[in-house]
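Students often ask what a holo structure prediction actually looks like on paper. The answer is less mysterious than it sounds. You provide the chain, you provide the ligand, and the output is a string of C-alpha cells encoding the 3D arrangement of the protein together with flavin mononucleotide.
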Amino acid sequence: MKTFNAEEVAKHTSPDSCWVVLYGHVYDVTDFLSSHPGGSKPEAKLGKIDPQTLANPAKPAAKEEKKDEVDPPLESLLNLDEIEELATKKMSRRAWAYYYSSADDTWSKSNNNLVYRNIILRPRVFVDCTACDSSTALIGTKVGLPLFVAPAAMARLGHPDGEQGIARAASKFGALQIISNNASMTPEQIVSDAKPGQMFGWQLYVQNDRAKSEAMLVRINKMADKFKLICLTLDAPVPGKRELDEKSSFINAAPVAAATKTGDESSRPGGGGVGQQLFWGTAADLTWKATLPWLAKHTDLPIVLKGIQTHEDAYLAAQYAPQVKAIILSNHGGRALDTAPPAIHTLLEIRKYCPEVLNKIEVWVDGGIKRGTDIVKALCLGAKAVGIGRAALFGLGAGGQAGVERVFEILKAEMETCMKLLGAKDISALGPQHINARMVERDIYDGAAGLDKMGLWTKSKL
Ligand SMILES: Cc1cc2nc3c(=O)[nH]c(=O)nc-3n(C[C@H](O)[C@H](O)[C@H](O)COP(=O)(O)O)c2cc1C
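The corresponding C-alpha cells follow.
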C-alpha cells in the first residue's frame, strides 16, 4: 500500500480532486462530492498517510513551542474528539503514539467506532421521560452508570495523576474502574482514597512466572472490599503489531517501560515500542482447562473474561458460570489482531447463535466508544456495561483527573439525552426495539453455529 506525505495530500483540496485522511488512510472522495458521501468504497482508498508528515494531531508541536499556549477550559470541550485533540497537543509524542496506536492497518480500531454509526436508533414518542435513571448493577454491585473504565496500561504516561486520577474521577460518577496489570501505580495507591462502595476490578495478564501472578492475587484478595472482580485478558496472548508505537521508539530511546521492569530482570529486548516492552513475561499458554482451575485456587473473586470475539467462546465462557460472571467482548481497541471483529459483531453473533448466554452471564463490550448514543446502542443489544479505554487516557492527557471527569460528564449527559429522546426512563427500558442494526447484521459471521460439532451444544444446561 502506498504511503503519502501530508504535503502531497494537501494538493488535493479542490472539487476536481479532493482527498481526505481518515484513520491514517488516504481516500479520494472526488466522486462522492456531488452525491451521498456514505459507504466505504475500497476503490477510493489510495494508501496510507505517513503520520510523521502530518501537523497536529499526528505530529504534536514540540514541548517548547507549547509552553505559552493556554489550554481551553475543559467545559468548552464538547465531545471526545475535542478532548483527544487537546491531549494530543499536550502529551509527549511517545506517550501519544502508545495510546493512539493500533495493529497493522488499523481496520479494527476504525470499525470499532464506525459500526455504531451504522446502527440506527428508533425513538418512541409520547413517553414521559422527564426523569432518567442511568444507574445499574454489575455482577451484583450497584454502579452509577453502565460505563466502565477498561484496563489500560501506563496512565502516568498521559498525566502524573495516573490511575489514581482516573479512580478519583470514576468515584464522582460511581463508575467501575478495571485497573491494568501494567498500571503505572500500585493497586494499593490507586484505591487508597476510594469512596465507600466504589467498585474496582483487577486485570490480570498471567505471567510465565506464575508465582508473580499468584503474589499479585494475594494482594488483590486482601482488598476484596474494593476489588469486586478479576478480569482475565485473553485476546493478546502475543502482542499485536502496532507500527506507530514501534516507530516512536526510534524518536526517543528512553525505555518508558523500565518502570515496570522488576529488579531481577537484567534486560528486555529493545525496540518494539512501549506495548512490546510491557508484554515481556506475559504467558501465551493459557487454556480453558488449565487456567480457570488455577485461578480458582488463588482467588474467590468473580472472573470476567476479556477479549471474547466469537459466539463459540462466549458460549464456552458461560459454561464456567458461576466462576465466570461476565465476559467483555473486545478486540483490545484494535491493538491485537487487526481485522478482528468489533464487539458489536460478536454481540449480534451471540444473539443469533446462542442468546441464552445473555441470561447466564453478563456480557460487557468495549472499543470505539465516542458518543453516548454508542453506549445506548450496545445496551439495546443486551450489553450490561460498556467500557472506554483511550477516552479515559486522553481525558487524563487533556486535564488529569478533571479531564477524565469531563469525559464521564460528556458521555453521561449524551447517554441520558439519548435515552430520553428514545423514550426510555431507565436502563431496563432499553431493548432491541430501539434500534435497527440491519446494516451491521449483514456483515456478521454467517457460518454454522459450530456448537454441536465442537461438542459445545449443551443447550439444556444453560
Ligand atoms: C494505551 C492502552 C493500553 C491498554 N492496556 C491494556 C491492558 O493493560 N490490559 C488490557 O486488558 N487491555 C488493555 N487495553 C485495551 C483496553 O482495555 C480496551 O479494550 C480498549 O482500549 C477499548 O477500546 P477504546 O480505546 O477504543 O475504548 C489498552 C488500551 C490502550 C489504548
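Residues 98-99, 112, 150-153, 180-182, 203, 233, 306, 330, 332-333, 335, 366-369, 388-391, 393 surround flavin mononucleotide (CB under 6 Å).
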